[in-house]
């Protein structure tokens, strides 16, 4: 998957996790928690969805890499580059 | 101080009244709509399909979940939580309480449930099967969704209530049990307002259908509206339903002080236990429970205007309850009997509370709603005063008695007086 495809995938996951939020104005460089109402259970949802959809395992010590869209895509790109977009 | 011989001699801060009703039923999403459909004989039972069991029947609610919940909170929580949140908000709105200024640390929540956690556990195991039972795919939401206090805790979160909250696990006697618990806590001054009653999400667990089917107690009929037929000779089991009904309960003194409209006073209640079988009811113990509630209320059987029966449509259970009622009410010429499950199915933990609310409106409109689907009355269920197929107008009764019984031999009865 390309970085753009990974970004689309994260957006799709966020739409499920935060269905009341408008994601159209998401600023990739700003932390999710500073622009969306997300808590620790929501971040675990992101981790779980990536695991279920793509078998991507994210160790707990790396959870901080999921702070913003930009950092998430940067972190996932090497892990998902060989995966095909479904 | 606990009433043991009627409440009229009690001080007003020991008398417990209903000052708000919020509900969702398979045939109505507020008290007025529910009542209207009960009087019209409009069934809320429809076709339903659930994994593994396949096509069956159920009482399904269509309340607007988004009225009081964000989509995110609904996704994170449980169906029972959403039913509770809808019912609680509706009850508070109906009560006219000044919710913005009320001390919410003095509000208690006492919500009856038949079971809780089965829905989420079944869903998670179903998901896990797709991952070869690798538990690293098990949801982190499982525990907060399945703890036994979940439905009440979700109400607390949604409404910012910081008083005590818990559920009362009482099988299908839970709706009455929630009401009784709320009244007791008010009498003890553990809270000033109680949100009490019951909720059910049971139609979302295949296990309850499969278990009733294995027991030979799951109703079937080509016409869904005819499937739930307590007292009829062709009855063949239970129609499982979801739903919720929560009451705002207050001490009479508080309700009067704020000029609240009062829908009835809880003047008597009783709970007891068969201690004879896991599933089969015990008519003698049910009769004792009804008699105990009457004794606590200081009433004679003939003073009861309407008895809201528990009967679920099973062959044995209906006959046993009728035997119990004949023991207590034999010769009572003016007492009427009806059954709400014939219209909505068996709403499990919500049943007792919902069925009471469906009848409470008789205090205002003077009509006893009918038991529908009695095409051929089973002689074993013949009760003088049984209202079948057509509502009966008799004028507002003074007292309504509500039966609610459950597995493991749990029995509950409440008596409400029109004031």
Quick gist of this model?
The complex is a heterodimer of chains A (86) and B (419). Chain A is mainly alpha-helical and 86 residues long.
Per DSSP, the total helix count of chain A is 3
* Helical content band of chain A: 40-55%
How many structural domains can be distinguished in the coordinates of chain A? 1
**What would you call the structural class of chain A?**
mainly alpha
**Broad CATH class of chain A:** Mainly Alpha
Number of strands of chain A: 0
How far is the N terminus from the C terminus of chain B?
21 Å
Describe the structure.
- The complex is a heterodimer of chains A (86) and B (419).
- With 86 residues, chain A is an all-alpha fold.
- In chain A, 49% of the residues lie in helices and 0% in strands.
- Chain A has helices at 3-17, 40-54, 69-80.
- In chain A, α1 (3-17) crosses α2 (40-54) and α1 crosses α3 (69-80).
- Chain A starts with a helix and ends in a 6-residue tail after the last helix.
- Chain B has 419 residues and is α/β, with parallel strands linked by helices.
- Chain B has 14 helices and 14 strands.
- Classes of the chains: A mainly alpha (86), B alpha/beta (419).
- The interface between A and B is small, with 12 and 11 residues.
């Amino acid at each position: 998957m390309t970085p753009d495809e990974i970004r689309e995938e994260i957006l799709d996951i966020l739409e499920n996790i935060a269905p009341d939020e408008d994601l159209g104005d998401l600023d990739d460089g700003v932390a999710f928690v500073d622009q969306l109402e997300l808590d620790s259970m929501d971040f675990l949802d992101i981790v779980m969805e990536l695991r279920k959809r793509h078998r991507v395992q994210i160790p707990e010590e790396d959870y901080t890499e999921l702070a913003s869209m930009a950092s998430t895509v940067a972190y996932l790109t090497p892990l998902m580059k060989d995966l095909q977009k479904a | 101080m606990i009433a043991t011989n009627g409440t009229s001699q009690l001080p007003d801060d020991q008398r417990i009244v209903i000052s708000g009703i919020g509900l969702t039923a398979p045939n109505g999403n507020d008290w007025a709509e529910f009542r209207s459909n009960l009087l019209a004989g409009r069934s809320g039972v429809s076709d339903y399909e659930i994994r593994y069991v396949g096509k069956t029947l159920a009482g399904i609610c269509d309340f607007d979940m988004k009225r009081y919940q964000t989509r995110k909170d609904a996704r994170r929580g449980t169906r029972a939580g959403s039913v509770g949140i809808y019912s609680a908000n509706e009850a508070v709105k109906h009560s006219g309480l000044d919710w913005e200024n009320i001390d919410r640390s003095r509000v208690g929540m006492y919500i009856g449930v038949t079971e809780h956690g089965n829905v989420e556990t079944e869903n998670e195991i179903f998901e896990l099967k797709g991952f070869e039972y690798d538990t690293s795919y098990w949801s982190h939401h499982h525990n907060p969704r399945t703890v036994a206090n979940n439905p009440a805790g979700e109400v607390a979160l949604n409404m910012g209530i910081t008083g005590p909250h818990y559920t009362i696990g009482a099988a299908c006697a839970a709706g009455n049990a929630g009401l009784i618990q709320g009244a007791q806590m008010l009498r003890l001054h553990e809270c000033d307002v109680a949100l009490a009653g019951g909720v059910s999400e049971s139609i979302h667990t295949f296990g309850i259908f499969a278990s009733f089917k294995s027991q030979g107690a799951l109703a079937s009929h080509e016409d869904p509206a005819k499937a739930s037929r307590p007292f009829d000779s062709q009855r063949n089991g239970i129609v499982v339903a979801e739903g919720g009904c929560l009451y705002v309960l207050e001490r009479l003194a508080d309700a009067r002080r704020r000029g609240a409209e009062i829908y009835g006073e809880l003047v008597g209640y009783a709970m007891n236990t068969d201690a004879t079988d896991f599933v089969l009811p015990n008519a003698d113990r049910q009769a004792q429970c009804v008699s105990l509630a009457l004794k606590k209320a200081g009433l004679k059987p003939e003073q009861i205007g309407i008895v809201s029966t528990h009967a679920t449509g099973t062959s044995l259970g209906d006959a046993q309850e009728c035997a119990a009622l004949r023991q207590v009410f034999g010769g009572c010429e003016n007492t009427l009997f009806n059954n709400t499950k014939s219209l909505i199915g068996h709403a499990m933990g919500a049943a007792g509370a919902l069925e009471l609310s469906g009848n409470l409106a008789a205090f205002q409109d003077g009509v006893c709603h009918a038991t529908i689907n009695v095409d051929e009355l089973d002689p074993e269920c013949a009760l003088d005063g049984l209202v079948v197929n057509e509502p009966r107008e008799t004028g507002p009764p003074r007292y309504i008695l509500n039966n609610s019984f459950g597995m493991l031999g749990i029995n509950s009865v409440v008596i409400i007086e029109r004031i």
